[in-house]
Batch of 4 targets.
Target 1
Amino acid sequence: MKIAVVAPEVFPVPPIRGGAVEAILEELTARLGAHDVHVFGIADPDLPRREARGHRTYHRWQPTVMDRVMLSSWKLPWKRSGSIQYYRPYSRWVAARLQQLRPDVAQVISRMSYVPWIRAALPTTPVILSLHQLSSLDASALWTPERIAECDLITGCSQFLVDEVLRRYPATEGKVAMLRNGMDPARARPWWEQREVRERMRGQLGVESGLAVLFIG
C-alpha cells in the first residue's frame, strides 16, 4: 500500500526536537516496511526538505516569510485552532502533494482542521483521523456532522479518549475505534529480566529496600 501520514505542524519528524506524537509516528512508520510510506511534516534546519529512508519518504514544509506573518497573532482568524483556516498554508501544501501522490490511505494526526483540505484533494481515499490528546476535541466548530462525515475512521489512543469523542460528538458513532500507542518490548523489558540493572539503579537512588515508584510524564 501507499500510505500517507500527516504530522502536526509543531515538531519535525523524526523527532529531533522532541515531541511525543512525532516519536510515535517515527516508531510506527518504521514498522510498515512492507509498504510505501510518505510522512508529511514541518521543515527543520537540520533536515532536508525531502528525504528517502528505506521504505519511508519524508516531505517537509518550509513556511515562507508571509506564512510566518499570517501566523504571528492568535487574534487573526486563520490562527484560531477552531477554524479550518488554522495553519492553512501547511494544510494546502499537504493537500496539493497528496493530490499528486494519490495514496491508498491518508492518516491525519490530531488535527481535524486538516481534514477538509485533504478530503477535497482525495475525495475517494480513506481518511483516518488519529487523536492523541483531549485538546483536539476543544474546537467544537470543527466537529460538525459534515466534518465528521469526511473522516472514514477516527481513532483514539485510549478508551477514555474514545468515550469522550462519543460523548461530545454523537455524530461520530460508528466511526470511532481505540488504537493504543504501541511499545517496543525489546526496550521496555520487565524488571525481573533485568535484576542487576534494577538493583544498581536502586542503589544509585538510595532506595535500598521498600517500594519505589517512578513517574515519567
Target 2
Amino acid sequence: MSRPRALITGITGQDGLYLAESLIAKGYDVHGVIRGQNNPRRELVEELVPDVHLHNGDLTDLSSLLRALRDSEPDEVYNLGAISFVAYSWENAALTTDVTAKGVLTMLEALRLHSGDDPGRVRFYQASSSEMFGKVQETPQRESTLLWPRSPYGVSKVFGHHMTINYRESYGMHASSGILFNHESPRRGEEFVTRKVSKAVAAIHLGLADELVLGNLDARRDWGFAGDYVEAMWLMLQQDEPDDYVIATGISHSIRDLVRLAFAHVGIEDWPRYVREDERFRRPAEVDTLVGDAAKARRVLGWQPTVSFEELVPMMVQADIEALKAGWR
C-alpha cells in the first residue's frame, strides 16, 4: 500500500514546518511548494525536514501550481502560503491581495483542473484567520460570526475563505477552512509581536538590549501553540465531509500579559521600566479583542490544545535565550 501524499504551500513558514514534521511522522510522503530557486529559507526547510520534496512554484502563477500538482500527485493539499504579517499588508495592499486573496483562487482552480472528473479526490485545506473577524460582532467568535475585517490582510483572508466555500459548493471539492486564532512558537517570524517580545526579553536578560518598544499593550488575543494547530488542519481533511472550523484556546490575554509573563521567566518583575509604547506601532484600524469558540472542533474533530499560554511564552523566551547564546559560540 502506497503512502499518502501531501502538498504544502507556505512550507517555509512556522505552520508549514510543523505540519511537514507532523505529516512525515504519520507516514506521509510530503511535498512543498517554495517560491524562487534562491529562497533564503530553502536551507531551513532542508535542514529541519530533509525528507520533504520541494517544488518551485508561486501562488500567483497557475502553471507552476499545476506542475507542482502533476509532479507530486497529492491526496491532500494544505494552502498555508500567504503574506501573513498584518502591518505589512497596509504598506503593500495590492501584493497582499494578489498572494493572500487571489492566490487561494489560483490554487483552487489549479486543483480543480488537476482533479478532472473527480473533484473530491484531492482534499484541500485553506488557512483562514481570526483576523477575518476584525471589528468583532460577538464574543467569543465562532464559525457563524459575521466577518468584519479591518486590514488588507483580513480582507484578503475573507476572500480566500469564501472562495473555498464557493468551490466546495460549486464543484463538489473536499475543501475545508481552518479559522485559526493566533498560534505561536519559537519558529514564529521576528516581525510578529510574540516573537518580538520573546527575543527582546531574551536580549535584555543577557545584557544585549535595554528596551522593548511596542504599540497597543491592551490589545487582546487568543494565543495557542502552532504545533497543536497543525494537528487540527490534518484532522479536518480526515473527515468524510468538508467543513469550516474555528481553532482556538477560548482564552484571551493582553499584550501586557504576554510581556509580564515573558519578563517573569527571566526573573524581572519591574518590567515596565524596560517597555516603551510608540504610536507608530499601532494599527490604522485596531482589532482590540479576539477570542475563539472551538466547540465545533472539539465535538467533531476531537481536537483540543495541549500547550497553555503560560507554557508557550516561557518556551519562546527560553528558545531565544539559547539561540542568542549559541550566536556567541
Target 3
Amino acid sequence: SIPDQVDHLITEATFGLPIYKWETHEKIGQDIRSFARNTLDSNATPVFLAYNLGKAQEVMHLLAPMEHKVQIHGAGYKMCDVYEEAGINLGDYESYVRDTCEGKILITTNSALNNGFASNVRDKRIAYCSGWATRDAARSQLTVHKLIPLSDHLDFFELIRLCEKLDPKMVHITHTPNADVVQHYLDERDINSRFLDMEVVEDD
C-alpha cells in the first residue's frame, strides 16, 4: 500500500517524458489477443517479444482467455512455476520446442529471436511488448509487425500523480532520459525535486 505522505521519495523515471502514457490493462490485453487471433487466422505464427521474467508471464496471463497453446522460451519457462504457485493463470503453455512451435503462440526475447528461435517458421508475425514500443522508431529498429506498449514502470503521468499524492519534501529522480522535464512538471505543483546521479564509480 502507498503511504499518505513521505518526506523523501527516490524514484526512477525511465519513462519520464509526456510521450509515455500507457493504455489500460484491459485495452492492452485486447490488443495482445487481437494480434494473436488475427495472426493465427492468417495461418501465421504470432511471436511476442518480452523479457523472460515478468513481462513474458504477463503476456501469457493476458493470452490465457484464448485457450490456445503457448510455447515460451526455455529460460522463461523455468520461471513460470512461481506465478502458478501464486495462483496466476498463465493459460495452456509449454516450453519452446523448435519442431512443434509452428501454429502455437510463441513468447521469446529479441536476442533469442535473432539467434535462431523459430527460424524454421516461414510465416511469423512479431509483436514487441515494452514501454519502449511507444516510440514508432522501434518498429524499424526491430523489424516487427506490432508495437504494444506494455511496461511494469509508471508512465509519466502516473509518476507525477504519485508525487502529488505523497507530497514529499524532496523528490530524488534517477534513471531518466531528461530530469529537467520531470522537474518542470513538479515545479508547477510546488514539489521540490533534484536529479540523483546513481552512476557507480569503481576503484581500480
Target 4
Amino acid sequence: GCYAADPWPTNIGGQAFLESNEDYHAKTMPELVDIFMTNRDWTESYLKTQKELDAWAKKHPYDNPPVVLHSEQSEAAYELIQRGPKAKAATQAMIQSLTNSDFLTRQWASHHKDADEQRADSENRHWSIQVLQAIGSNSPEVVPALVNELYNHGDGYEAAEALIKISSSDTNILPSVIAKLENNVD
C-alpha cells in the first residue's frame, strides 16, 4: 500500500516516505489480482499546498519534502510471485495486463494527475512478466504469452530471461521459442 511513518520515516535517497501495514499475505487470489490490475506504483507529495511546502522548506532547507509512496501493484505482484505455481488463477489477468498494458496504464493515470505514466507502464509490464515466470509452465498460456513478448523492444529481454528460467524445469520451452523465431526472420 501506502507507506507512512511518524513524524518522518527512514528515507530513500534522502526522500522521506510513509510506511505500509497492509498484509498482502492474507489476501485471496481474486483480491491480489484486482489490486494488481487496478493500481500502479506511484508517488505523490505528502504536502498538498504551497503554504505547507514553504513551511517545510523553511524548517528543512536541505531536504526534499516527504512523499507518499503507493506500491499496491508491486506488493500484490510480490505476493503472487511468492505463491508461484499456486498463482495459476492469475495467469489470464497477467496476460491481459501485459497485452493491454498501455491502455490500462493510461486509464489508471487519467485518475491520477501527478502520475508518471511511462514509469507506471514499465513497472506494470515488469511485474506481469515476473508473475508469469513464477507461475511457469503450470499454465499452458504462460509460455506463448512470454514468447510473444520477445519482439517487444522494451520487454523482450526480460521475457527471454523468464523463458530461460522456466526452461530449466520444462524442456518444451526451447521448441516454442525456435518456432516463433523461425516464423519471423526479422
